[in-house]
Amino acid sequence: MKALPLSMLAASALTSFLGQAAELDIKLTNLTQGLHFTPVLIAAHNSEHKLFNVAMPASTALQTMAEGGNLEPLINEATAASSDMVANPAEGLLAPTSSTMATLTTSDGNNYLSLTAMLLPTNDGFVGLDSWMIPSQAGTYTVYLNAYDAGTEANDERVVEGAGALDVLGIPAAPGGNAGSGASGVTSNENNTMVHIHPGNLGDDDLEAGISDLNNTVHRWLNPVAMLTVTVK
Amino acid sequence: MRFSKSLIILALGVSLAACSDSDNNDVEVKPPVVVTPTSYEFTVTITNLTAAQPFSPVALIAHTEGMLWQIGNSASEALERMAEGGDNSQLLTVDFATHAQSAESPLPPGEQLTLTLTTEQLESLKISLATMLVNTNDAFTGLNAIDVSSLAVNESLSRHSHAYDAGTETNSEAHGTIPGPADSGEGFNESRDDINSVAMHPGVVSQDDGLRSSVLTSQHKFDNPVAQIIITRTQ
């Protein structure tokens, strides 16, 4: 083990007062009736290394997750920040009303919990938990999570193969198999380019044409979209 | 420490009991232990926060185990009957309910009502309630197994409730499928043509927002929360 500089020793002494390592049992439930979650990333981190910042531009890593469900860049960044992580506990998609469980042991100083997973079918929507302070008191806590928009892509609501790539506009997939095709596109603008609460899918009632490939009675949602139950041991 | 102390007390109690047993010739008149049947009373006030979704007569139950619904599980028939047609009769007689109360009439938007529940048990006591948003296919709201066993007298807890979807009827919003005043259509139908799993409700679309076959208008739209519920222990 390398000798730590004095300043870092002092910092670690301080953080040990602010928060001890914790052992967490985590359960995530997809509350929606018609949306799938792509692989989920859960990270315990310090106050600086968040997975996303609301009202700030999305990082490329966040954009990669929100537009195509690829967690790799976010995992790399969180690894570099010495965050504690659980990646892809559901081993794939988390279907509507399904739950997944995970356990996470956090290190001293990683006192905040964040979570992301892309919502399908959306252009760049994701379910998010931003820096929830892990309670020091043992117990079971319930947190409801909302849907965010990465602000990196216009919500045109056309299902386009390959649209998970950053330079391709569209929704990469509708895993429920209940989307249409041939839509002209709802919009080509994304006026708010910061991370914000998602305005929701619009959809339409024409699966062969219309402005959206999404079904307006199936692919809309109301917040919250997920329930997180955290047991601090 | 606490453990050993209670052991001593226990041992004392046992020896005293033993004494009184063996000395039962000395007539010692003990006052009879009066077991007053204790009752606990709760008032539950429900406020309909929606724009134009009357609530069907609210079903309120007390219980110590069980749940009226669970996200990810298919709805019970009792829940389906309430969520599709507003008929709460089966929910009120659900096998784990120890007490039940029903509102006498629907609860219009913007109004509130109070129900009172009296129980003889406080330990592990839970309160659940459920009601349909009647201008929908199968939307409902309520509270599921809220633990009230630690509420002190005159203490309250307040909750906002979400709109759920029973998952038993497609949200077609079509003419003849909605029992509320927007349509006066069919209520309960035993067929299940939706995902057959309870979820959060995605909201209604309405004819004004892109579903041309919908009997609903923009005024029937709702967002979470849809109700405020205050539970107060009054006795």
TrEMBL record, chain A:
A Pfam match: Spond_N
Domain Spondin: 36-154
InterPro entries, sorted: Spondin_N, Spondin_N_sf
Keywords annotated in UniProt: Signal
Signal sequence extent: 1-21
Protein name as annotated: Spondin_N
Annotated organism of origin: Pseudoalteromonas lipolytica
From TrEMBL, chain B:
Signal peptide positions on this chain: 1-20
Entry keyword Signal: yes
Region called Disordered, residue ranges: 167-194
Superkingdom of this protein's organism: Bacteria
Hydrolase listed as a keyword: no
PROSITE patterns referenced in this protein's UniProt entry, alphabetically: PROKAR_LIPOPROTEIN
Keywords from the UniProt entry: Signal
Name of this protein: Spondin_N
Protein species of origin: Pseudoalteromonas lipolytica
